[in-house]
């Protein structure tokens, strides 16, 4: 189920559909960008994206591991991410990421994500 959610989220990002991508996040999501900026909540994330300068980019996250705790309804995901400039098939930037998922609402949603840029 988490893999399916991740795939849908990647598709939304590639289409620059920020509203759809936000449906995969908890309202109080915490995100640390690859450059170390901490974003708190969906509203702040959407503002951060709208205020971004430079060429439009999308990100693809590729999971290497997902571990689910059925008792706490939490899951750990880790993998690699790549950032692409709109219209390009070659990654401009990338690195490693981790995500915490929660199923409190009955649907797996991202509660926090940490991205670290490791290559440019």
UniProtKB/TrEMBL annotation:
Protein name (Swiss-Prot/TrEMBL): Nuclear transport factor 2 family protein
Record-linked InterPro entries: DUF4440, NTF2-like_dom_sf
A Pfam cross-reference name: DUF4440
Gene3D superfamilies: 3.10.450.50
Segments crossing the lipid bilayer: none
Record-linked SUPFAM superfamilies: NTF2-like
Source taxonomy: Bacteria, Pseudomonadati, Bacteroidota, Cytophagia, Cytophagales
Domain DUF4440: start-end pairs: 2-110
Species of provenance: Algoriphagus formosus
Domain of life: Bacteria
């Amino acid at each position: 189920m988490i893999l399916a959610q991740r795939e849908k989220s990647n598709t939304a990002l590639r289409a620059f559909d920020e509203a759809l991508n936000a449906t995969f996040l908890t309202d109080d999501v915490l995100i640390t960008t690859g450059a170390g900026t901490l974003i708190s909540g969906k509203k702040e994330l959407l503002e951060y994206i709208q205020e971004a300068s430079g060429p439009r980019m999308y990100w693809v996250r590729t999971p290497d591991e997902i571990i689910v705790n059925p008792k706490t309804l939490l899951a750990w995901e880790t993998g690699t991410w790549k950032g692409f400039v709109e219209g390009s098939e070659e990654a401009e930037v990338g690195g490693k990421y981790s995500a915490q998922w929660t199923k409190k609402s009955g649907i797996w949603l991202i509660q926090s994500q940490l991205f670290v840029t490791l290559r440019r």
